[in-house]
Design a protein that fits this description.
It catalyses: Hydrolysis of (1->3)-beta-D-glucosidic linkages in (1->3)-beta-D-glucans. It is an enzyme of class 3 (hydrolase). GO terms for molecular function: glucan endo-1,3-beta-D-glucosidase activity. Its EC number is 3.2.1.39. The protein has 2 domains: about 350 residues, TIM Barrel (Alpha-Beta Barrel); about 90 residues, no CATH class. About 30% of the residues lie in helices and about 15% in strands. The protein contains 14 helices and 15 strands. Helix 5 packs across helix 6. The radius of gyration is 24 Å and the shape is globular. Bound molecules: 2-acetamido-2-deoxy-beta-D-glucopyranose (NAG) (8 copies).
């Protein structure tokens, strides 16, 4: 008896049946005071989450997900991928230890081998990562086959920066460093195994990098703007479709058709730093509600280039995660606050009428802030962590903290916080154009209130 459902599901090999149009979510846990995994899964069930993506194959979470209807994508972290790629024995070991104990009671449907392995900015050993990606994917697939597990897709997660050109979509091309070797080999694997390419697709980043040229309504999936691609003649009503299709065009250019795509991460931040345009609750709610409506329409719209296809979609993220590093937006991708309450109303099933949502607070920062901004110690920071941060910042060059030397115009009042305020502002204003952010590992925040006092003038950033 118990064998029957199993047999039946392996007959569905590669059918569309395991590609659900139900909205997925990224369950990230880089925060303190987040609800427990048990509570988080209760929350996901009550939100009717259809799929969940994990950054690893955490045994506690996989156990708790067993018996739920939630489909699961697990990740093989990059370091583990390198090991697995080095020897098939390790692939078998991974499958035996991290997969078999939970399957099939936990509905694992995707194994994502590596995360952002082909990103241009990856800072680990890139050659080792590139070289191990394919062997690791093959090893895991082979091992799953040996265990007669066939309804699980093995793939990897990429970001949009695998593309060298994205616009117009028909011009989509992979970076030259990957288009000749690793991409064709990987696509061949995906094509042969009928797998799905996972992509992080964030219209927010594309729009915020170029808000003058891209209409915010186009980025927010409002559907009331159209753009025709002169190369293909296809008509686009939103930026998400353009981004997806630019990847499909790039894939075609190296000889593959009908490779299916999934969105491993998308969303819109509900808050951010003063110099981060458009991160607000109004836009976040609008984007995610429109996204859900689009991805749950019946029949499914697909994209202009691939009409009608299912695009499994994972929204980032379940929670705001206060331990994430980087600019303020990084800590505000959640649909829920860290205490589990909603940041804004959202219906993941897509059945709620848009006009039934309560009014949202107006968007106040869709235009760049005009004025000066400084960088200061965040009020919640423990002073004990400041001296080493200040000595790092001041050690970069001999100018940034010159005013803090004894007798310098900012030496007094001699206090740890005062000196850190000055050092952070000075460093940020000097190096912002080279990518510096006002964060210093969470010790600092931006302010529009000039901290200067007496003859000490704080350097500022003018937006
Ligand atoms: C996954 O997330 C958890 C919680 O933030 C973290 O402890 C763990 O190290 C992460 N795993 C990987 C491989 O990044
Ligand atoms: C793979 O690892 C196993 C066990 O550690 C070892 O016996 C085998 O020789 C290794 N194979 C290769 C090709 O290195
Ligand atoms: C497509 O890309 C090429 C080279 O990057 C560029 O010269 C051309 O203008 C682009 N086409 C369009 C329509 O923008
Ligand atoms: C804005 O768009 C126009 C045409 O679509 C293009 O020629 C121009 O390079 C774009 N500007 C920026 C800053 O991307
Ligand atoms: C699209 O819709 C938004 C929100 O309703 C509106 O503000 C905007 O003006 C519309 N744009 C066009 C071109 O109709
Ligand atoms: C993709 O797979 C199909 C069979 O599933 C095959 O006919 C086709 O040649 C493959 N494409 C490439 C470029 O390998
Ligand atoms: C949504 O609500 C509006 C106003 O109540 C109504 O006119 C519209 O028909 C509804 N749409 C759907 C799809 O139910
Ligand atoms: C500061 O550093 C620069 C370049 O590293 C050097 O030329 C200069 O002499 C230094 N000035 C002082 C006062 O040490």
């Amino acid at each position: 008896m118990a064998l029957l459902p199993l047999l039946f599901s392996s007959l569905l090999v590669a059918s569309l049946a395991d590609m659900t149009g139900k909205i997925g979510i990224n369950y990230g846990r880089e925060g303190d005071d987040l609800p427990s995994p048990y509570k988080s899964i209760q929350i996901m069930k009550s939100m009717k989450v259809g799929q969940v993506k994990l950054n690893d194959s955490n045994p506690e979470i996989l156990t708790l997900l067993s018996g739920t209807k939630i489909h699961v994508a697990v990740t093989v972290p990059n370091e583990e991928m390198i090991r697995i790629g080095s020897n098939e024995t390790y692939a078998e070991q991974w499958v035996r230890n991290s997969f078999i104990p939970f399957y099939p009671n936990t509905l694992i449907r995707f194994v994502l081998v590596g995360n952002g392995v082909l990103n241009s900015d990856i800072d680990s050993d890139r050659i080792a990562l590139y070289d191990s990606l394919l062997p690791a994917m093959r090893g895991i697939k082979k091992s799953l086959n040996n265990h007669d597990i066939r309804n699980v897709k093995v793939t990897t997660t990429l970001s949009m920066d695998v593309l060298q050109t994205t616009f117009p979509p028909s011009n989509g091309t992979f970076r030259s460093g990957i288009s000749g070797t690793v991409m064709p080999r990987m696509l061949k694997f995906l094509n042969r195994t009928k797998s799905v390419l996972f992509l992080d697709v964030y219209p927010y980043f594309a729009w915020s990098a170029n808000p003058k040229n891209i209409s915010i309504d186009f980025a927010l999936l409002r559907g009331n703007i159209t753009q025709t691609d002169p190369g293909s003649g296809l008509v686009y009503t939103d930026l998400l479709d353009q981004m997806l299709d630019s990847v499909t065009f790039a894939i075609e250019k190296i000889g593959f058709r009908n490779i299916r795509l999934a969105i491993s991460g998308t969303g819109w931040p509900s808050a951010g730093d003063i110099d981060q345009i458009g991160a607000n609750i109004y836009n976040a709610a609008t984007y995610n509600r429109n996204l859900i409506r689009k991805m749950t329409l019946n029949p499914l719209p697909g994209t202009p280039k691939s009409p009608g296809v299912v695009i499994p979609t994972f929204i980032s993220s379940l929670y705001d995660e206060n331990h994430k590093i980087g600019p303020g937006t990084e800590r505000h991708w959640g649909l829920l606050h860290a205490n589990g309450t909603p940041v804004y109303e959202i219906d993941l099933t897509g059945s709620r009428n848009m006009s039934d949502y309560k009014p949202l607070p107006p968007a106040e920062n869709n235009e760049p802030y005009k004025g000066k901004v400084w960088c200061e110690v965040a009020p919640w920071v423990n002073e004990v962590s400041l001296p080493s941060a200040v000595s790092n910042v001041c050690g970069i060059d001999n100018q940034t903290c010159a005013a803090l030397a004894p007798g310098g115009e900012c030496y007094e009042p001699v206090s740890v916080v005062w000196h850190a305020n000055y050092a952070f502002s000075s460093y940020w204003s000097k190096y912002r154009s080279q990518g510096a952010i006002c964060s210093f590992n969470g010790l600092a925040r931006e302010t529009t209130v000039d901290p200067s006092r007496g003859r000490c003038n704080f350097p500022s950033v003018t937006l």
